[in-house]
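Input chain follows. Return structure tokens only.
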Amino acid sequence: MTGLGSLNVKIFADGADRSRMLEMSARPYIRGLTTNPSLMRKAGIADYRAFARDVLAEINDKPVCFEVLADDEREMERQALEIAGWADNVYVKIPVTNTQRHSCCGLIGRLAERRIKLNVTAVMTLRQVRDVVAALNPSTASYVSVFAGRIADTGVDPLPLMAEAVAILREIPRAELIWASPRELLNIFQADAVGCHVITVTEEILNRLPRVGYDLAEYSLETVRMFHDDAQRAGFQL
């Protein structure tokens, strides 16, 4: 698409609607897919395992990331091993901590030693990035998902943190940094500029892609017309 061809960052579609996931997977600029329990709950998924296997039966040529559900480390490990066995293109999402703030890096290290492909998720600090990198297996492909959008929600500029995270991940070249939870289309270009390998993008943001490179004067006119037309339709008078 116009404006995207020169980017190095890979776009992963983020969602939990099977038909939309299949449609997104067919688009050449979508390089992988991610989902999470919150998105699946919102989509009304009742059977996690059946949903995942159904998706993986259709999508086998791009990475797809599915998350463990447990909070106990032993059960998280069991679930991770099961999820990893669903398909060769699966990356298992492991949260950087459990709900009690206990680090999952020990578990991450054990799974990495077994060459399980991981996506370590919900990362928001550079200390967490360093701890995760130390636990990962340099010879196994993996992702580190830093939630830049949520960092920005706190009033902190995520760009310096993401740039430093890129530098930290150079220690293990097979690990890739994901810019997670983007809030706007601009984030794709910001992620590319700082050297992020991947950005996860929801359908809402992906639907704005036709605006990339759009003439701003024309966009201004469309906006003026929208306001005028809506005022007319509403029957407003002064």
